[in-house]
Amino acid sequence: MSRLPFNLKTRRLADLVALFVFVSLLAAVPGRSVAQTDTALLSPNDLILVKVFQEDDLESTLRVADDGTVSFPLVGVVKVEGATPQEAARRIAAKLADGYLRNPQVTLTVVEANKRRFTVLGQVQKPGSYDLPDRNNLTLLQAIGMAGGYTSIANEKKIVLKRQAGNKEIVYKINAQEMAKGGSSSTFEIQPGDVLTVGESWF
Fold first, then answer.
1. pLDDT, tens digit, for every residue of 78-95?
2. What is the pTM of this model?
């Protein structure tokens, strides 16, 4: 059996060690992964940085408004809520290409993501405000679980959820006891800004 020269074996071993160190360093970097950053949807109050290649004067740090828009130089208002950073960059580029720049190259980075929060009040162990998961949906029952579950005098049949839809407040009255049995409403999802109140039993 032929053997590799000693110097070649040493080089390959060094390459493997260097690769291992590189991967380890990547794993140790804190914060969101590249995939999470690329696919997270923009929402009001997100702080974003927009750059246009070779157009330094257009570099802008912008806060997404409550109506889901940003005001960008030259083109004005652009709707970005619900879009990924890449999609939002394409929208801005399309507007710039419409009479302002030839083939603009736009990049958009989320500098500070707005925390999506909901509130649980009433007869739960730990009432207060909580962050919604970045990547997964949260059901009403899971939200109650995050708040420590029911107290001993909670009324699972008497739950009120208030939700803001534009200028209108929507109120849901929910029977969580039935929901826990696995009915179709068991997937009722919590949205940012929801205020959930668990009622009290009367003995």
1. 999 889 999 999 999 999
2. 0.49
